[in-house]
User: Fold this.
Amino acid sequence: MARTLNKLNVKLIAATTEPGWYGDGGGLWLRITKDGSRRWVLVSIKGGKRKEMGLGAVADVTLAKARAAAAEARAAIVEGRDPIAERAAKLAPAPAEAKLDVVTFGDFADDYLDSVEGGWKNAVHRKQWRSTLRDYAPEIRKMAIADVGTDDVLAALKPIWLNKAETAKRVRGRIEKVLDAAKARGLRPRDSMNPAAWRGHLALLLPKQSKLARGHHAALPYADAPTFMKALRSRAAASARCLEFTILTAARSGEALGATWGEIDMVDRTWTVPGDRMKAGEEHVVPLSTAAIVLLESVRPEAPKDTDIVFGIKGAPRSNMAMAMLLKRMEYGHATTHGFRSTFRDWAGDMTEYPRELIEQALAHTIQNKAERAYRRGTAIKRRMQLMQDWAAYLAE
Assistant:
């Protein structure tokens, strides 16, 4: 049995960066997620059921401490005890006894995410959960979770409530969920109001956000985009497929309406829009996500000519009015087709780590800065492909 233990060492751990599960033996694993999170996990199987017990982040818990904690938990299991339940009981002292401030918001949030993120298929969503709380609620993370109050939540939200409206909504919702989970674990008084609750609470204390993003083209908030896409995909009309393609590629409506099969490369998964159809007059290569390829395959005739319009009607491009009328029928008439480019830009800027120049390139915006123009000429197509994959994954949530 001893030979199966202590497979890892400090140097190996430091050098390992690829996402995956790396065993030390005895059920102790180093888990590295796609978002770069590195945590210790003890895996046990009892009665045919697999259980995972988080032992902390690698940055906070040394290999030696992780092994000691794993050994202690294994001993408890051998004795018929449940180390996970015992730890929860320690974190939640009896109401008549001690204080409820035994754990910080940040520690509990990390533990909570470890326990629930396994059910989230989207790696981007997992990364966003951690990054929003880290970037927009740093002071709350330091606080004892029992002490977080309305003023603390307001202090985190007010700086971004109007200028980063969708991000602020997500931050509020995530703080609320963490605090609800803490109450369920006995770390907050059970009769207390959640200070991040919206109805009847923060809704009365924060200014009303504009429903639409400001600008020449009305844009749907990106928080509403997945719901909209689900409704759009339920429609069989050709104009619905054209609008879906436009959104997936963050293209201008005219570019999508005039797309020909000769511009589409299904093997390299690219759409090359010639300069004479681009606003800036320069050829633009659009990486096609898997969702975009699947959509194209669903509308592709058996042997299309290169000059055939992908979303055409009787050999000619559809009118932009067809998509505008579709939005109206779907009761999204307040948004515009072009506005979905702003939806994409807001999502990419608020919710991802992609550099601004890459996002601008995806939108085929004219770039004035010399360094950024060099970036455009560089080999950024692979990174833009991943950006569009992440966008498609977000829209499918």
